[in-house]
Amino acid sequence: MHARDFVVIGGGVIGLRIATEVKLRFPDSDVTLLEKEERCGLHASGRNSGVLHAGFYYTADSFKARFTRDGNRRLSDYCVEHELPVNRCGKLVVARSADELDVLDELLHRARLNGVELESVSVEEARRIEPRARTHVRALYSPTTATVDPTQVVAAFAQTACRVGVEVRTGVAYRGRRDDGIETTAGALRAGYVINAAGLYADRIARDFGFASAYRILPFKGLYLHGSDEAPAFRTNIYPVPDLRTPFLGVHLTVTVDGGVTIGPTAVPAFWREGYRGLENFRLAETLEILRLEGILFLLNRAGFRDLALRELPKYLRSVLASRAARLAVGIETRHFKRWGPAGIRAQLVDLERYELVTDFKLEGDEESFHVLNAVSPAFTCAIPFAEYVLDEISERIK
Ligand SMILES: Cc1cc2nc3c(=O)[nH]c(=O)nc-3n(C[C@H](O)[C@H](O)[C@H](O)COP(=O)(O)OP(=O)(O)OC[C@H]3O[C@@H](n4cnc5c(N)ncnc54)[C@H](O)[C@@H]3O)c2cc1C
Questions:
Q1: If you write DSSP's letter for every residue of 38-87 in order, what string do you get?
Q2: Ligand 1 and 14: CB distance under 6 A
Q3: Which residue range or ranges hold the FAD dependent oxidoreductase domain (predicted)?
Q4: CATH number of this structure's domain 1-50+149-214+358-399, picked from the four choices 3.30.2040.10, 3.10.20.310, 3.50.50.60, 3.40.50.1820
């Protein structure tokens, strides 16, 4: 293998792990990671629930099924090795009515196929695990679900990347493609191979290289409410039964790494990509494009987009969000959840031919560039084995 210059775009968990893996596999190559912000992890990677998922939601043929179980174990081990806290609090999936019991069975079936530990528990057993849990007839218990602090994980990943010899350049944005590399906000950069892990902007960058023509990223905002000191303490995460037509898991109660509790995240269709608060990062052209796409999805209601939008929008109200969480556990009161935490935005891919939300990770590339599209949840959990797989794919293409 010849030494060549690799440029990785995006300093979230995916870009950082890919850059690390490139350097480990091609130690004679120069590997540069570009992050447009002043620090790595200021977008989805640092603004998520920090849940290390177990891997039972996903159909066996998916990338998500393939990487979540091992990703959970490897990221837990990485945290222990780097002395980062892990709260091995597990998780209950609770049913709200008899209609949801079939989905519990389906999740149990998927867990078996994916080799993931998951138990069906009675109401009494669920209450022994978490006395406040509410469930109808039965629930599922996942012992391997855990929580971490995502900002600590990103910081450690960035240190690991630098330690193995990746040049991490923050405050430098990709601007466009050139014959011999790329144009950045800090000038031209020679690049033998470009890897795009730019999260919310990955589709735009992919198009410069002739990829992602049939896809667009649609931002979905995730809002969180943080419990005050008076909020009840929980022993385990509590999730609802998900709507399997959408890639989202529903508003849940998360036990944070330090034992606090949050309600969220919502999955509200957003109007521009990095609109975390007020008019922050507003871009008119981007908004018009997104509104057009959301309008089409709303009218077609493919895979339940309209139902989702109508269900999610009221959750901007604190009382509505708290009342959704109150269906999962007793003792949830709006007055204990007054503070909104930092919102996160999912870079959700839409298939423009079928007008559907893409559920699995999507990878495209050739002998010059590689593009990670739709690195949505649980890509944080999957980051370590997923990056290794990306490198297997790249190595095949540049043999
Ligand atoms: C609300 C929410 C909750 C979630 N909860 C969980 C969870 O509990 N567990 C889990 O496993 N996953 C969860 N996820 C998913 C997880 O956060 C993401 O899958 C993961 O962080 C994706 O990482 P990334 O590196 O692809 O993207 P990002 O973290 O978004 O990184 C992309 C980076 O690219 C940079 N970039 C963009 N354009 C350019 C450019 N032109 N030049 C240079 N840099 C650029 C951005 O600044 C950004 O830092 C959640 C996501 C959200 C939004």
A1: SSTT-SGGGSS--EE--S-SS-TTSHHHHHHHHHHHHHHHHHHHTT--EE
A2: yes
A3: 5-292
A4: 3.50.50.60
Q: Which atom of ligand 1 is nearest to the CA of 49?
A: 8
Question: Is the minimum distance from the CB of 276 to ligand 1 under 6 angstroms?
Answer: no
For residue range 216-227, list pLDDT tens digits in order: 999 999 999 999
Tens digit of each residue's pLDDT (9 = 90 or more) over 52-75: 999 999 999 999 999 999 999 999
Angle 269-275-276 (CA atoms, 0-180°, nearest 5)? Answer: 100
Output the six-digit token pair for 330.
Answer: 């007793």
Atom from ligand 1 closest to the CA of residue 343: 1
Span 178-190, average pLDDT: 95
User: Is 209's C-beta closer than 6 angstroms to any atom of ligand 1?
Assistant: no
Q: Evaluate: CB of 257 within 6 angstroms of ligand 1.
A: no
